[in-house]
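Hi all, posting the design record for the shared folder.

TITLE: backbone redesign
STEP: 1 of 1
STRUCTURE INPUT:
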């Protein structure tokens, strides 16, 4: 169930709205030199989550007036940028679908993935294609099939606690975490689980998911999913909600080490 965030007490105005459809390259903590592909409008945010830690801000504060970029525009602009980077001798390590919201919301996401793989093979065959997704659209057969074709299928799972998910991620519509976990299993290991760990409070409520009551059940779910890798990370930029705090290096390292001990590669980004 969607629960509208009560932001009057904790809202700040710090946000980043990315250009569309191509931005960067930027240096990613987890992925290297990343050329961004933003399938959402350039003047606002479109997302099936409304996370209190999102660097793009709250959905209600950034309603777009422009449309999503068309498939043809994405392909043309990406090819132009890759030609430029080739001429400059700076090829990307990764082509990353991210930006102002959930990339798999785009109605032609699967076709754009096909175009991107074709252009990658032509201009920078060593680069990986990555998708950063909140997992809410992986029930769509065409989205699942497209994500099976990319190199890094990075899917969010911040916790398995429904109360925490509603409090922090604010999913639109129905979000069944058990169903999400089952759909993650359906990738047969071709996925990277990405989890945000943080501390602090918002609207007088704790948003700390670093304790055993969260980490233990999450780890059991991760082991059941069997991903190729796990990425744990914490807040890196200013957030739209005040009162949030980074997880400590020691906390992230401890979580990382438990994942590795379970036989799954894991990285921690601070």
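Okay, here is what came back for every position:
SEQUENCE:
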């Amino acid at each position: 169930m969607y629960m509208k965030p009560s932001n009057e007490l904790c809202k700040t105005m710090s946000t980043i709205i990315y250009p569309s459809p191509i931005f960067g390259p930027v240096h990613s903590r987890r992925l290297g030199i990343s050329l961004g592909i933003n399938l959402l409008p350039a003047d606002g945010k479109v997302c099936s989550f409304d996370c209190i830690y999102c660097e793009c801000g709250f959905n209600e504060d950034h309603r777009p007036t422009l449309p999503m970029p068309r498939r043809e525009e994405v392909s043309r602009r990406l090819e132009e940028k890759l030609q430029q980077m080739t001429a400059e001798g700076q090829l990307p390590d990764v082509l990353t679908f991210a930006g102002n919201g959930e990339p798999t919301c785009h109605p032609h996401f699967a076709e754009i993935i096909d175009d991107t793989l074709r252009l990658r093979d032509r201009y920078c065959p060593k680069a990986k294609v990555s998708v950063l997704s909140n997992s809410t659209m992986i029930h769509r057969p065409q989205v699942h099939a497209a994500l099976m074709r990319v190199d890094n299928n990075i899917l969010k799972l911040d916790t398995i606690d429904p109360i925490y998910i509603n409090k922090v991620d604010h999913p639109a519509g129905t979000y069944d975490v058990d169903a999400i976990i089952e759909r993650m299993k359906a990738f047969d290991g071709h996925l990277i689980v990405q989890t945000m760990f943080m501390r602090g409070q918002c609207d007088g409520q704790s948003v700390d998911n670093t304790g055993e009551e969260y980490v233990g059940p999450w780890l059991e779910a991760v082991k059941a999913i069997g991903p190729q890798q796990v990425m744990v990370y914490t807040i890196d930029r200013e957030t739209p909600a005040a009162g949030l705090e980074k997880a400590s290096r020691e906390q992230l390292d401890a979580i990382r080490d438990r994942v590795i001990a379970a036989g799954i590669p894991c990285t921690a980004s601070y």
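COMMENT: The first strand starts at residue 22 and ends at 28.
Let me know if anyone wants the other runs.
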